[in-house]
Every structure is written in structure tokens, then in C-alpha cells.
């Protein structure tokens, strides 16, 4: 019930519009058939011409921003580059719209990775800082 533990609805709206405009919508008429985008009440999913699929969704009762990505073989570098950009933009928007919200970044155990994720808090999560320090 503490507002400092949840993402605000405004954050989600701005995030979805920002990601749709920046990544999911075609930049020119030539790319219109090569991009697809699905938006729903709590998330967005899109693919690009580089073979990378991305999904960003607010889950676990507005406590968690979920970023799932997959790519075709050979597109791993494109996916990692896009992943860094998306994380940077999500954190930037969070600082602008929900500065009092305390964040922690986690990686979901790949053996438990399936979609849709109903309760991320029940999954095995690894703190990114601990992974980076290894």
C-alpha cells in the first residue's frame, strides 16, 4: 500500500508510448512490413529487422518491470545492445517519474523462465550486482 513500492500508472503510460514510438513503430514506409508491435494494458512486445524480439511489461501488481528478449542465431550482439538501451531508458524514466521508488535489478533463473510470468517474487532471482562481481 506504500506508494514508494509501486510504479505509478503514469510511468507505465509514458514508458509504453516512449518504447512504441522509439522502437516498435517503423521509421519509414520501407520498414512497415518488417516491424510488428503489440500493446496491451500493461505491456508492449515488438520485433525488429535485426531478428530481436522484445517484451516489456509491468507485472506483479505494478511492482516489477519485466524485460524479456530473444533473438535469432547471429543477432546476439544486436540483442545485447538493445537490452542496454532499454534498461537505460527504463531507469531514466523511473528517475523522472518515480524518483522515490527504490529499484533492484534481477536476472530470472533461466530454468524457470516462461511467459506469462504470474508472480516474479516466487521465482529464483539473481542480483545483477552479485553476478557482475563474479
Beginning-to-end CA distance, first to last residue: 36 Å
Query: Any idea what the radius of gyration is?
Result: 15 Å
Run of helices and strands: HEEEEHEEH
Q: Residue ranges: pLDDT <50 for 5 or more in a row?
A: none
Neighbour order of strands in the largest sheet: 1-2-3-4
Helix content: 25-40%
The count of β-strands is 6
Question: What is the mean predicted local confidence, pLDDT?
Answer: 76
Summarize the SSE layout with pairings.
Elements: H1 9-24, E1 36-40, E2 43-47, E3 52-59, E4 64-71, H2 76-97, E5 106-108, E6 125-127, H3 128-133
Antiparallel strand pairs: 1-2, 2-3, 3-4, 5-6
Helix pairs in contact: 1-2
Walkthrough of the structure:
With 134 residues, the chain is α+β, with helices and mostly antiparallel strands. The termini are far apart. The longest helix has 22 residues.
Short overview:
With 134 residues, the chain is an alpha+beta fold. The chain has helices at 9-24, 76-97, 128-133; strands at 36-40, 43-47, 52-59, 64-71, 106-108, 125-127.
What key phrases describe this protein's structure?
134 residues, alpha+beta, four-stranded antiparallel sheet, two-stranded antiparallel ribbon, 3 helices
Amino acid at each position: 500500500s506504500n506508494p514508494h513500492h509501486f510504479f505509478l500508472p503514469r510511468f507505465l503510460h509514458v514508458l509504453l508510448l516512449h518504447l512504441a514510438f522509439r522502437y516498435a513503430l517503423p521509421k519509414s514506409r520501407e520498414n512497415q512490413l518488417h516491424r510488428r508491435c503489440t500493446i496491451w494494458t500493461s505491456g508492449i512486445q515488438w520485433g525488429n529487422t535485426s531478428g530481436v524480439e522484445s517484451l516489456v511489461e509491468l507485472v506483479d501488481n505494478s511492482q516489477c518491470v519485466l524485460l524479456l528478449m530473444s533473438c535469432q542465431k547471429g543477432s546476439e550482439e544486436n540483442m545485447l545492445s538493445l537490452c542496454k538501451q532499454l534498461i537505460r531508458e527504463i531507469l531514466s524514466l523511473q528517475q523522472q517519474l518515480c524518483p522515490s521508488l527504490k529499484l533492484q535489478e534481477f536476472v530470472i533463473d533461466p530454468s524457470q523462465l516462461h511467459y506469462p510470468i504470474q508472480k516474479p517474487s516466487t521465482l529464483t532471482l539473481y542480483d545483477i550486482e552479485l553476478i557482475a562481481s563474479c
